[in-house]
Specification:
There is one protein chain. Helix content is 36%, strand content 25%. The protein is α+β, with helices and mostly antiparallel strands. The protein folds into 2 domains: 194 residues, 2-Layer Sandwich (Beta-Lactamase), CATH 3.30.450.20; 60 residues, Winged helix-like DNA-binding domain superfamily/Winged helix DNA-binding domain (Arc Repressor Mutant, subunit A, Orthogonal Bundle), CATH 1.10.10.10. The chain has a 9-stranded antiparallel β-sheet with strand order 1-9-8-7-4-5-6-2-3, with helices on both faces. It is globular, with a radius of gyration of 19 Å. The relative contact order is 0.15. This is LuxR family transcriptional regulator. One of its GO terms (molecular function) is DNA binding. One of its GO terms (biological process) is regulation of DNA-templated transcription. InterPro entries: Sig_transdc_resp-reg_C-effctor, Tscrpt_reg_LuxR_C, WH-like_DNA-bd_sf.
């Protein structure tokens, strides 16, 4: 298996960029944030980090609901403030995943970049100081005049209510529907596993039902909201479980989150 080396925080900070441009971060990322609100199927918060300053610039208003710190503590915080919220066993692996994702980004053409999904998984502290699994995605990056990543919008999805059989450290899904997974291995190694994906087609109506399931609505409530019958909702849910090879609503939503089916 191919392996990636873990890295330290000090080495990662050397990725700092040298741009001197002033950036309107909220204006730059507002459309992407709004799209995430529309399509998100699990609770989330977002963080905008400047590579130029290696500091957090903006965060979502609800960040205090998902982390031990209020919004005021996050603004202008150093990068270590963010990474230290992750489990000590995960930190060096996550830094390696971030570095690898950056290298991967610059190693492919723009069209492929836009159609590639990078999922990074880790254990992060919640507001009660307990570790739970999260999924981190960076759906938009700002590239400066030196062709460097000037800042990133990082979206963190809370996975504590979902059950996964096994999670990789990083998963990369390419436009040709192939997934490359990297798992934490022995002796601080990161091991690679490639697979062909069988991604099911999800209809518009099924997506509507998935969003409502993820928000905790019952079958009768979904039927009322969508003006369809109880049996129709149950048929859609049954079809979705067959398509995804899952047996429960929780497993179904976990599958959808992992493979970004609402965006396909």
């Amino acid at each position: 298996m191919d392996k990636l080396n873990t890295i330290t925080s000090n080495k990662f900070l050397k990725l700092k960029t040298n741009s001197t441009e002033n950036t309107d971060y909220l204006g730059l990322y507002s459309n992407t944030i709004e799209n995430i609100r529309r399509f998100a199927i699990s609770p989330f918060f977002w963080i905008i980090i400047s590579n130029r300053e290696q500091k957090t610039q903006l965060v979502s208003d609800n960040i205090g609901d998902f982390t031990p710190f209020p919004k005021s503590d996050w603004i202008s915080s150093e990068f270590d403030f963010f990474i230290n919220l992750f489990h000590p066993e995960d930190r060096s692996f996550l830094l390696a995943a971030f570095e690898f994702a950056v290298d991967k980004y610059f190693g492919i053409d723009e069209d492929t970049r836009n159609a590639t999904t990078v999922n990074i998984y880790g254990r992060m502290l919640n507001k009660d100081n307990d570790y739970r699994w999260i999924l981190l995605q960076s759906p938009q990056l700002c590239i400066n005049q030196y062709d460097q990543i000037d800042s990133t919008l990082n979206v963190i999805f809370d996975l504590q209510n979902f059950k996964f059989e096994q999670l990789p450290l990083i998963s990369i899904i390419t436009p040709d529907i192939k997934e490359t997974q990297y798992y934490k291995g022995k002796n601080n190694s990161i091991e690679k596993n490639e697979m062909e994906l069988e991604v099911p087609y999800i209809t518009k109506r099924e997506k509507e039902i998935l969003r409502l399931i993820s928000q905790g609505f019952t079958t009768p409530e979904i039927a009322k909201k969508l003006f369809i019958s109880y049996s129709t909702v149950e048929n859609h849910k049954s079809n979705l479980r067959k398509k995804t090879g899952t047996k429960t609503s929780s497993a179904l939503i976990a599958f959808v989150i992992r493979y970004n089916l609402l965006l396909i």
